[in-house]
Amino acid sequence: MRRKRFQHGCVREVKHGSRRVWIGKFYENGESRTRVLGHIAHMNEGEAWSELQRKYLNPINEDVGFRQTLPSNFKDYVKRVFVPQRRENWKEDSTEITTLERFQNHLFPAFEAFELRDLPRDKLQQFLNERAKSGYSRSVVDHLKWDLKAIFKMARIAWLRATRPALW
After folding, report:
1. This prediction's pTM
2. Which of 19, 38, 109, 139 is the most buried (most CB within 10 A)?
């Protein structure tokens, strides 16, 4: 999850038609914004700064610094974090359909009650071995292994970024 940055903004004097006005510049949701704050004849630079802060920057900066917490439940994490992130790289609709079907039919029934931290490697290996013994093809078991590996790799990186931000 990307961190929101604190917005300082800037105030400039520009000609707007035939009059001179104060404009405020800032970023909102990654896009540059420019707003007219008032005429120079009616306010000074300090008043323009306070107008920019009050109207535009305070609402944006309200929750800056608070990191969004990642879900710790396996099913919630996969649905809310992993799938949306991975969906961007899937080339075909069939990839999405088959992957989500594997999650619904295999992974969610087996792990939906678990927290991510409560799933050690031997439990995951046991799950894969059971699938192989119960008659699923090698390609299905391999896909489940790849899915689990990708899910836990992403979760580990997210955890490292949250606990050790100096490394990133």
Report:
1. 0.59
2. 38
